[in-house]
Structure formats: structure tokens, C-alpha cells
Design brief:
The structure is a homodimer of 233-residue chains.
Chain A lengths: L3 E3 L4 E2 L2 E4 L1 H9 L8 E6 L4 E9 L2 E9 L5 E8 L3 H13 L2 E7 L16 H15 L6 E5 L2 H13 L3 E5 L15 E5 L7 H9 L3 E3 L8 H12 L2
Helix pairs in contact in A: 2-3, 2-6
Chain lengths: 233, 233
């Protein structure tokens, strides 16, 4: 936890009182003492310094004096990964600054994955918070779930992608991943095994370019970090 | 397992007999039948197609007709990560094509990590194999362990880094990570929390440049994939 994130309504004047996981973490992992300074931030707001007043109850006096880091202007469209991988992918994308994630179905997504409790709003929020705490950011990503591939790609994705560079990762593509883009990007990443040809054609029909990181087949979390790093400026 | 890797001495003529984990995986996960084709490769050698002759014992008739993908010309110098993360980092770096990994000590590496059974040659080999099986590669990385930071950096690293672009990831650096390098790279990545200033100075004294991915603090596996993707061509 590189940043202690709290909600605006947890503040009273310039004092924040923390309970539960965060208080426990500050006592047990940071081993903080009264007078110590921690990096803090208010959800969707500014970042600053919190000075420990008391440890139990855990109270911090905070000064919020700077903006969070700039977002990565990438909308991530992601085929639902295995539940075991989902948490790392959400936290990882959030840590890299992604602010909109749409989780979609695809032919190679196992149906049972959609029943995972990890898709609950509570868990997705918790993983996003973990990503923000890691990266010293405060701005939560919007995470949406779309269980039907075609209606999403045909009816919704065109307006999501409008005005952005729209790319879909496809191992068989002949184009490299574009680098250091300065404008908005819509990036689609398939499941393990990739999107099937018909799905790739659906993306291409609405103007997506297929791009490849090369001949190596990477795990979803590795591919995601690599793709975001390549397109990011 | 996108590629079934075997050793040259498991071949007899053009037939490979597999036992244990790989045979089990082909039967249970690939659900292969006699006559099915799988992607195969011989350790440190060529790639090709294996046709299932019999399932039990599991025998494949193989044709090795192409080279593995080109390596990523990056030597990775990595502060020992938490044992929980080590496996993913080794498999991830291998999947991205790294062929030499030196795991080193650093001030912020907990001493207990060096006692982890995950540092055994057997486990490091198993994780490298997992990375090759994922990426459809055959060439194992060399993995070395160096428990003393200063002797390694002062006496060994200069010749390892000679002739390469030598960079150390440092969140406070003012230079961006160089992109799309065509020559060899030596990339040093610190532990969670980063290298301390004295360590950074040791790298700089032997000619390393400090580079930063930006203000976000990333987990080691995310940072590694992002750094390799940025420098890779």
C-alpha cells in the first residue's frame, strides 16, 4: 500500500479516521508510529500527506496538496479472463492508469467464468482500490460487464471507440503495436487462445486495426502490461 | 501449454514418448486423440508439429521444421522478488524472450527470501519451461543468483553490460525508458520499494542510466513486462 486511499466522507475537517483493513495495514505492515507521515489520497480527488495522530483508533491529519498522476487515455476492452487471473488484471490495469474497463464475452471464454464471485461489484472495487494504492493514484476506473459479444461490439463499441485509435491484439496480425500514442486509444484484448476469426472480423468491421506484439503467445496479464506500455506515451 | 517441450534425448528417431506432467496435460487439458497435431519443440532447438500416435503410453511422431522465435536481446538484472512473485516473474520474463536473468540482492530484499525453496535450480527450470511452453519457444534462459550486491555490481556487471545499453529502472529518474532499441540491453529492476540511492549510485558509477516509466509505482511483474515491452523492438 504505497498510498492510503479514503473516501471524502471519511474526513472530518482535516482528520481522517480509518478502520478495518487499512488501519490494520498501517499498524502491522507500515509499523507506523504517532508523528509518522504516510502518502494519502481521497477517492477521485487529490493526493498528499497524512500524519499519524493516534494509532488506535487510527487517525491521520491530512494535507492534500497535489493532483493524482495523469490517467492513461486507454479504454480497455477485455475478454473475461479466468477468475484466478481477473484480480491481477484489474489491479494491474488500474495501476497503469486505465480509467475505463469493459469486460466482454468471447467464444473462448468459458461460460462458468461468468458465475465467479470475483465479478461482484465489491470485488471489482476492491481490486481497483488495490491498483490505486499500488500506483499512488486516486481515480477509480469505471468497470462494465457485457455478457453478449455481438450486441456490444455492433451497437455500443462504435461510440466507445469513436475519436480514438482502435486496436485489437491478434497474434496473427502483420502490424506492430503502435507506440507512444498521444491521443485516446481503445484496446481490445482476447481470452487465452485469442479471439476467433469471426470476432476479429467483427472488430475490423467497426474500424479496429489488428496489431501483434510478435510471435510469442503471452499470458493475458503479461500481454496487457506490454500492450499498455507500448501504446502509452 | 501452447508448445510441448521435450529434451533431445527423449526422442528415438522421430518418435517422442512423454510421461508425467506433459502426458497428463495432453490427455486431460488438450483432450488429444490419436491423429491430433500439437505444436512441439526440442529444448534449445527447433519447433514443429507432433502427431499423437498413442495416448497411453503417450507417443508423438514429430516433424521439426522451423526455428524458435528470436530472443529478446535483454539481460535482466533483477532484485530477488518475494517468493510468491518469483515464479510469475521468471515465467513472464522467459515468455517475453529474455535469455539471461541475474537475480541479485538489494537493501530492500528481505533476507528470508533467499531461503525460499523456489530458488532451487529445479524450480527455476520449471518456471522457465512454463514460460517457453506459453510463448512457443524452446531456448531456456540462463538464471544466475548473486547474493552480494556490491561485488556483483562492481566486479561482474561491467563486463555483463559491456556493449549494451545499460539502464536501471528508478522511479525518480527524469529520463523516459528508451523505446524500440535494436541492440542489446542490460536492464536492472529493483525490489518493491526500489533500489536505495546508494545502490542507484553504484549502477551509475559503472555507466548505467536511470530511467522511469512515470510517476506510477508498479508491481514488479507489471513493471517488468512494461519495461521489456518499451525497450523491445
Amino acid at each position: 500500500m504505497n498510498l492510503v486511499l479514503f473516501a471524502a466522507d471519511e474526513m472530518s475537517g482535516d482528520v481522517v479516521r480509518l478502520t478495518g483493513r487499512r488501519a490494520e495495514h498501517i499498524r502491522a505492515v507500515h509499523r507506523a508510529a504517532a508523528g509518522d507521515d504516510l502518502t494519502v489520497g481521497v477517492e477521485n480527488g487529490r493526493i498528499g500527506r497524512g500524519t499519524v495522530i493516534t494509532l488506535d483508533p487510527l487517525e491521520l491529519r491530512v494535507v492534500l496538496d497535489r493532483e493524482p498522476p495523469p490517467p492513461l487515455p486507454v479504454t480497455l476492452v477485455l475478454a473475461l479472463p479466468r477468475p484466478k487471473v481477473l484480480n491481477r488484471v484489474i489491479a494491474g490495469a488500474t495501476s497503469m492508469g486505465v480509467k475505463r474497463i469493459v469486460i466482454i464475452n468471447a467464444w473462448r471464454v468459458e461460460k462458468s467464468y461468468w458465475k465467479s464471485p470475483r465479478l461482484s461489484p465489491e470485488n471489482l472495487h476492491a481490486q481497483s482500490v488495490a491498483g490505486l494504492e499500488q500506483a499512488e493514484d486516486t481515480v477509480l476506473p469505471a468497470i462494465e460487464l457485457r455478457r453478449l459479444f455481438r450486441p456490444f461490439v455492433e451497437n455500443e463499441l462504435p461510440s466507445i471507440a469513436a475519436g480514438s485509435r482502435a486496436i485489437v491484439a491478434h497474434p496473427k496480425a502483420s502490424s506492430d503495436v503502435p507506440r507512444a500514442l498521444t491521443g485516446p486509444v481503445t484496446l481490445a484484448i482476447g481470452p487465452e487462445g485469442g479471439f476467433i476469426e469471426k470476432e476479429i472480423e467483427s472488430f475490423m468491421r467497426i474500424g479496429f486495426e489488428t496489431v501483434s506484439l510478435g510471435p510469442r503467445i503471452l499470458r493475458v496479464e503479461t500481454a496487457m502490461a506490454a500492450l499498455l506500455a507500448r501504446v502509452g506515451n
